Amino acid sequence: MPCEVKLRFVVLYGSQKGQAESLAEGIAEVAEEHGLVAELSCLNHNEKYNLEKETAPVVFIVSTTGDGEPPDNALQFVKRIKKKTLTTDHYKHLCYALLALGDTNYANFCNCGKTIERRLQELGAKQFYATGYADDGVGLEVVVDPWIEGLWKAIKGALSKMASDKADLLKGEAGKSPKGTPNLSIPHVQLNLLRITDHQNCDSIKASAETVSKCATVSLAASLTCSLPPLSESPLNVPALPPAYLDVSLQEVDSVEQVRKDTLHAAPISRAVQLTRGDSVKVAVLLELDMSAHPMVTYHPGDSFDVFCPNKATEVEDMLHRLGLQDQRNHQVHISLLKDTKKKGAQVPSYMSKNISLLYLLTRCLEIRSVPKKAFVRALVEHTGDCVQKRRLQELCSRQGSADYNLYVRDSGLSVLELLAAFPSCSPPLSLLIEHLPKLQPRPYSAASSCLRHPGKLHFVFNVVEFPACSGRPAGRLGLCTGWLFDLINPVLVFPENDESSSSPALPKIHVSLRPNCSFRPPADPSAPFIMVGPGTGVAPFIGFLQQREQERKEKPEAIFGETWLFFGCRHRDGDYLFREELEGFVSSGTLSQLKVCFSRDEQEEEEEATTSAAARPRYVQHNLLLNSRHVTDILLKHNGYFYVCGDAKNMAKDVNNTLMEMIQTELQVDQLDAMKTLAGLREEKRYLQDIWG
C-alpha cells in the first residue's frame, strides 16, 4: 500500500509563564488526528526554523508581558523582524495565522501579538486565518477554544490553495490565466464556533441516569462537585488526553542536597510595622530589610524585587499524604523523559535540579497553589475511580462546562490541592503534578524607600491577601506569600506609634532578588514636573520617589525642581491612610507640591455637607483628577510632565486611564480618537507609566 504523506505546518510560540507554550504544544500534539504534522519551536530557537525559506503555513502563539512587551523567549525574534533593513517583500512567500494572549486589565492588550502581526504584514506576509485575541481577564478559552477548532480547516484550506497555485505555476498557466498572476494570498476562512450538537470529530460522553440522580440527592444547587441540567444531561466534547512525558522515581539516599540560586540574597527583616489600624478591611504591613550584608545590591526608586516564598508547610504535608508519599518525603527525586512519549518537544523542566528531595520539590519548586488548567483537569479524569466524580471532572474540562470551570475553578482561584480534596477518589501520580504544575514563582514588590534616605535598607509594603470561602474551599485562606510573611513577623509586629529604630534579632531572613525597572523611575531631569497616582499600597514606590527628591533638594539647594503631585485614596482616613505623617511632612518641606487625598467610605463632616453636594465629593482618585483637570493636563501637555500610576489593574488603572482620556478631550476640545492618540503618544515617550497588578 502506498504510504500516506501527512502535510506539514509550523507552530512557533513566545511564552512568559507557559500558557502560550502549552497551547502551542497542544496544537502540535493533536495535529496527527487531523492528518497533519506540526513542527514545534520556540521563537528564540531560530536555528530550528527558517521563515525566510518556509513554504508551509506558520501558526504563531504569543503572549504579552510587562508593559506590552514580548516574552523573554520571543524578544530576539521581535528585534530581528523589526530591522529597518528588511524589504517590504521579505516575507511575501509566507502565510500565517496568529493567536495572541493578553489581559484587558492591563494596558497594551495583546501588544506583542499585534506587533508581530503588523510587522509580518509590512514585510509582505499573508494571513490565512483570522487572528484571535484571547483575554485572560475573562478567560482565555472563550477565544482560544473556537479559534483552535477552526484552525484545522483553515490550515487545510491554506495548504490546498498553496498546492493549487504551485501546480498552476508548474504547468505554465500563470500567464494564460484570465485572472492574471495567481493570488498567493489565502481567502478568508470563517471561524465557526463549536456547537453542543457538533460531535463529528469529538468524543461524546453521555451522562448516566445514575450520575444525575446521585447529584440531585446531594444538592439542589450546582457546585464544584455537582452539576444540574442541562449540563448534567449533555453529551460532552472532552479535549484529547495530554500525553505523559516524564518518568519519575524516588530513591532513598543518605543525604540530599538542597539547592538555592546564588542570585538570591538572604536579608534579615529589621522592622515590621502595621500601617492600618482599627477595623480596616485590609491589613497593610511595612517591612524593612537589612541589606548591609549585600553592598553590591543597589536599587533606585521605582525598582521592584522578588520575594521567594515556600509553599505552606501544612499544604505540602497534605499533598504528601494525598499522593501516599508521606514516608518518602526525604527520598531523592529522579526525573527523566519517557522513551516512548508522544509529546512534541518534551523536556525535563529546566528549574528541576538533580539532587533534590521530594519535600524540597513540593516546598520550593512546584506551585501547588496554582489554579489547575483544563489540560490538568482532563488528565485527572484518568486517575479518578468514582464514576460521578469522573463525570464532573469531564464536565469541568469540556467545552460545555466552560462556564462552570470559570465559576468554580478559575474565578475562585481554586488550588490544585483544593480540587483534589473535592474529588477524593482522584489519585494522580507524582509525575502528573510535575508535568502540569508551573514553577513556584517569586512574588514581586515595589521598593518603598530610597537608598539616599535609608542606606543599607530596603522597605516594601504589602496587603495581607485573603481568599474567601467558596464551593471547594470550606474556609478562607491567606495569600501564599503575604500569608507566609505575616506569619513570620506577626509576633513582633508593631504600630507606627510604637515603632522603634532598634532592630529585632528574632526576626528571620527572607530570600530576595532585585528586579530593576529602568522606565518606572522619576524623571532624569529634576526640573520636569510629575504626577503620581497611587491609592492604597500603590503609594509605595512614590514614597521612594519623594524620599529621593527630598534628599536631592537638601544636597542641591540651588537646583530647579519641577512640581510634584500625588493623588492618594483609601477607605478611611483613620483606618488605612498609609504613610500619612510622612506624606504631610513632604508637603511641609516643599518636596510634594500638591497632595490630593480621598476616602471612599468616610462620612463627610457636617460643615462639608452644608457647602458641598454629595456628587462633587471625590471618592476615588479619578474623581480628584477630574477636579484638577486643567492643572493635570497643563503639566502633561504644556510642560512635558510625567504621569505615573501604581496599583490595581482591574479597576483603578482602567478608571484612571478613562478619566485621563476624558480630561484631554475636554481641555483640548478633541474627540475620543484624538485623545487616545495623545495618550498613546505619552506612552510612546515614556511619560505615561504604569506599575500595576491584577
Automatic annotation (TrEMBL):
Residues 262-523 form the FAD-binding FR-type domain. Its EC number is 1.16.1.8. It holds the Pfam family NAD_binding_1. GO terms for cellular component: cytosol. GO terms for molecular function: [methionine synthase] reductase (NADPH) activity; flavin adenine dinucleotide binding; FMN binding. One of its GO terms (biological process) is homocysteine metabolic process. CDD domains: methionine_synthase_red (cd06203). Keywords: Amino-acid biosynthesis, FAD, Flavoprotein, FMN, Methionine biosynthesis, NADP, Oxidoreductase, S-adenosyl-L-methionine. Residues 9-152 form the Flavodoxin-like domain. Its cofactor is FAD; FMN. It is an enzyme of class 1 (oxidoreductase). InterPro entries: CysJ-like_FAD-binding, FAD-bd_FR_type, Flavdoxin-like, Flavodoxin/NO_synth, Flavoprot_Pyr_Nucl_cyt_Rdtase, Flavoprotein-like_sf, FNR_nucleotide-bd, NADPH_Cyt_P450_Rdtase_alpha. PANTHER family: METHIONINE SYNTHASE REDUCTASE, NITRIC OXIDE SYNTHASE-RELATED. This is Methionine synthase reductase.
